[in-house]
Every structure is written in structure tokens, then in C-alpha cells.
């Protein structure tokens, strides 16, 4: 139109564009940590729920059998005895004869996992071909979402103790687990054990005289620290650091290995849960600390800075310890 004012559309200047990009980058930078915190909180809450589900299952099992499930259903070879003077000391490995099924396997019917439970031949070793379907079955309740995606892990033999430095050899594969039971504060094979679970154990709730709310039964152990399975122990196997563990030594993959019993059961001796601990120890994937199930079904979190003596006291069922308040547990 002749004589009409033509309105033109202005473009962004380079400086304006850079400012907008910078603002978007700052907003994204603020959003990402927030999203990560929400995810971490959700993972921790889900692990807490897993532990509580296991607590209900333990009490359901106890109601049916008048005792808690054995830590492992396994036997030792004839003639084997615990020897505290053994070169491995407290880490002496029992001469396992199996079959090795864990407390977690016994809890399956109480976790609505009847399908997996029905595939287990408890009279046969875990590594038997007839148990392949069961041992490779992923059970969501046994996986901490803050730990790892469900997967199969290798169950390995690290060679002859006490000086094994060779690369572990594969025995079989099984579904991963992010939790372990507590056998107490003494050596792996020392009797009487002080915790809640052990080889062929049948502890009753009435045996927990320290109080079920003050006695730990199950705790987190992330598979990126130690890869273990819910199925139990396999004779001839040892537990080693995962390649992602803080203390993994690629030149000595069997560095500080632990005996087969530690695939399911942990003894607590020198420190609170830490990623600097042994492959057979408790350690969760959460920054706030490691989560544990008390035997009354409640849960607690224990940080790496907690008092070792208090932690040990919580892991005994009848030690008679007096626990002080405000000790970070």
C-alpha cells in the first residue's frame, strides 16, 4: 500500500541469543542435580520397601515353621572342623558340600514368588542343571534400584587359599542380589554364632533377647562392590570385589577374597559399612548410609561414620549390650 507504514520484525542480536542460551544452561544445571536427588530418594525408598517386604516374609516364615529360615541350607564335608589357628584365621573357609540354598530362597513363597520357588530342587546343588531356571531368575525384591539393573553375575573360584592372586574361574551364573543376612560378630565358622542367620540355623524370635527392634537381620550390599546372588553359596566358590569396587585390584582380581558363606551372610567386626571394607561386608549404594532391616520389621540407616562398637552390638541377638543414644546409627 502506497504511503502506508510498513512494520518490520526485528531479529535477535547475537548478544541476546547468547544470554538466552546461558540462562537455559543455568536452568538445566540447576535441574539436573534436583532430578538426581529425586531419583536417589526414590531408589532409597524402594530399597527400604524391599527390606520391609523381607521383614514381613521373615515373620510369615516364622509363623509357619516356628523358627526363622536358615541363613544357608548347607553342610560341610565329613571331618571338617573350624580351626582358629588356620592361616586364614577368621576367614577360614569351610569345606562346603552344599547344596547351599539361602534364606532368600526360603522366603520366596512369602514374597509371592511361588513360580520361582516351585522350580527349585532344594535337594540338588545350586549349580545343578535342573536348577538353572531358578538360579537365573531375577527377583525384584532382592535388587536395590539404586544399585544396579537386574542381571546375571558369575559365581567364581579364586583358587587355593590363602594366597590366591589368580583370575577367578567361572563355576556358574546366577541372578544378582543387593542384600545379605547377618551372622553376627564372630568368625564365619565360629560357634555359637552371635547373629540371626547361619548354616542350617533355626533361630526363634524368642532367642533374640536383645530385642527385635535392636537386632539387625538383613542389610544392603551393593553388587557394584561385591557381586553375589540371592540363591546362596556354591561349594568351591569365593567372593571377590566387583570390577567397579573402590578397592578392586586388576592385577590381583582375587585380592582379599572371602569364602563362599559370605555370598549370603556377613559378619561385622572392625568398622561401620564402608566401600573401603572387605568384599564380604555390608555397604549400600545410598549417600546417606546403608539401610538395614531390624528383626521387628522396622528399618534403620547406618552411616560410614557410625560407632563400630554400636554397629557390632546391633548385629548380635543376645549380647546384652546397652546402646547409647545419639551415636549416628
Keywords:
alpha+beta; five-stranded mixed β-sheet; three-stranded antiparallel β-sheet; 12 strands; 17% strand
Q: Residue-averaged pLDDT, rounded?
A: 88
Derived structural class: alpha+beta
Distance between the termini: 82 Å
Number of domains: 1
Which stretches are low in confidence, meaning pLDDT under 50 for 5 or more residues running?
Answer: none
Secondary-structure element series = HEEHHHEEEEEEEEEEH
What's the story with the biggest beta sheet? 5 strands, mixed
What is Rg?
Answer: 25 Å
Task: Please report the number of helical segments.
Answer: 5
Number of beta-strand segments: 12
What order do the strands of the largest sheet run in, or round the barrel if closed? Answer: 10-5-6-11-12
Question: Which range best describes the helical content: under 10%, 10-25%, 25-40%, 40-55%, 55-70% or over 70%?
Answer: 10-25%
Beta strand %: 15-25%
Q: Name the overall outline.
A: globular
Descriptive notes:
The chain has 329 residues and is an alpha+beta fold. It contains 5 helices and 12 strands. The strands form 4 sheets. Strands 10-5-6-11-12 form a 5-stranded mixed beta sheet, with helices on both faces. The N and C termini lie far apart (82 Å). The mean pLDDT is 88.
Amino acid at each position: 500500500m502506497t504511503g502506508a507504514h510498513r512494520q518490520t520484525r526485528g531479529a535477535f542480536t547475537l548478544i541476546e541469543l547468547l544470554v538466552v542460551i546461558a540462562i537455559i544452561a543455568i536452568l538445566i544445571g540447576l535441574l539436573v542435580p534436583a532430578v538426581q536427588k529425586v531419583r536417589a530418594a526414590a531408589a532409597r525408598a524402594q530399597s527400604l520397601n524391599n527390606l520391609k517386604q523381607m521383614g514381613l516374609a521373615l515373620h510369615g516364615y516364622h509363623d509357619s515353621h516356628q523358627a526363622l529360615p536358615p541363613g544357608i541350607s548347607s553342610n560341610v564335608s565329613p571331618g571338617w572342623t573350624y580351626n582358629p589357628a588356620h592361616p586364614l584365621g577368621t576367614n577360614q573357609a569351610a569345606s562346603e558340600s552344599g547344596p547351599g540354598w539361602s534364606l532368600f530362597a526360603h522366603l520366596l513363597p512369602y514374597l509371592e514368588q511361588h513360580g520361582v520357588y516351585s522350580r527349585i530342587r532344594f535337594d540338588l546343588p545350586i549349580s545343578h542343571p535342573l536348577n538353572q531356571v531358578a538360579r537365573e531368575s531375577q527377583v525384584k525384591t532382592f535388587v536395590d534400584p539404586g544399585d544396579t539393573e537386574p542381571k546375571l553375575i558369575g559365581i567364581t573360584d579364586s583358587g587355593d587359599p590363602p594366597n590366591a592372586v589368580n583370575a577367578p574361574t567361572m563355576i556358574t551364573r546366577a541372578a544378582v542380589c543387593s542384600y545379605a543376612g547377618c551372622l553376627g560378630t564372630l568368625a564365619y565358622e565360629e560357634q555359637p554364632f552371635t547373629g540371626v542367620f547361619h548354616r542350617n540355623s533355626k533361630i526363634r524370635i524368642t532367642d533374640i533377647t536383645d530385642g527385635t527392634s535392636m537386632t539387625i537381620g538383613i542389610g544392603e550390599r551393593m553388587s557394584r562392590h561385591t557381586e553375589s546372588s540371592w540363591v546362596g553359596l556354591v561349594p568351591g566358590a569365593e567372593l571377590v570385589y566387583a570390577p567397579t569396587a573402590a578397592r578392586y585390584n586388576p592385577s590381583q582380581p582375587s585380592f582379599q577374597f572371602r569364602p563362599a558363606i559370605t555370598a549370603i551372610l556377613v559378619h561385622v567386626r572392625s568398622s561401620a559399612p564402608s566401600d573401603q571394607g572387605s568384599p564380604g561386608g555390608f555397604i549400600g549404594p545410598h549417600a546417606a548410609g546403608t539401610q538395614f532391616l531390624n528383626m521387628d520389621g522396622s528399618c534403620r540407616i547406618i552411616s560410614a561414620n557410625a560407632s563400630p562398637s554400636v554397629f557390632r552390638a546391633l548385629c548380635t541377638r543376645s549380647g546384652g549390650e546397652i546402646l547409647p543414644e545419639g551415636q549416628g546409627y
